[in-house]
Design brief:
The protein is an alpha/beta fold and 190 residues long. It has helices at 33-46, 62-71, 76-80, 91-101, 125-138, 161-167; strands at residues 2-5, 23-29, 51-55, 83-86, 109-112, 145-151, 172-179, 182-188. The chain contains six helices and eight strands.
């Protein structure tokens, strides 16, 4: 059985309640996943919701979010200012952000391209493993809803275990898949 779900329920939008839906919610899908997620969040942001967006894949689509705001009849600056954007440039910066910077914000978190920095060919595998262990250790400590986006992309040889291990940590593992009206989020009951 396939359940069609709303993105907002994983971030407790529009009015997040601290501690209401904490945990790691993993959303897998095509490369457009980050842009699609921003588009889907735009009505909530227009109504006043706020999110922290950690852009580990350097794919935050401010232009697309501004277009979504205009289609809703909202000043794009109003929506853009409701997104607390951070861009880690390596796996160790990502861990530091999650361990020290996110919890004080008290906002639902979108971690875009959650594993991309661990799959960086320029990061030696042993260092990537060490950073990944720290990453896994700090995730549950946020106490906030954490939506981790895993867009499809090439995984270097020998690094596919990051994805396999990460998927075991998800409270929910969901898939963005094509549907008649565009896309839908689905969870398959086994």
């Amino acid at each position: 059985m396939v359940a069609t779900l709303q993105l907002s329920q994983y971030l407790d939008l529009p009015n997040p309640v601290p501690g209401c839906n904490p945990g790691i919610h993993i959303l897998r899908g095509p490369r457009i996943l980050p842009a699609w997620t921003l588009h889907e969040l735009s009505p909530h942001l227009a109504r006043g919701a706020r999110v922290a967006w950690i852009d580990a894949g350097n794919r935050f689509d401010a232009y697309g979010l501004a277009k979504a705001a205009l289609s809703l009849g909202v000043d794009p600056r109003r929506i853009l200012e409701r997104v607390q954007l951070a861009r880690p440039f390596n796996a160790f910066q990502l861990v530091t952000m999650l361990a020290r910077k996110i919890q004080p914000l008290g906002l639902p978190v979108v971690l875009s391209d959650a594993l991309g920095l661990f799959n960086d060919d320029e990061l030696p595998l042993e260092e990537a493993r060490r950073a990944f262990q720290s990453f896994l250790e700090c995730l549950p400590g946020t106490g906030l809803p954490l939506l981790c986006l895993l867009p499809e992309h090439r995984v270097p040889q020998g690094r596919d275990f990051f994805t396999a291990e990460f998927l075991t940590r998800g409270k929910d593992v969901l898939t963005l898949e094509p549907a008649a009206e565009g896309f839908r989020i689905a969870r398959r009951d086994l």
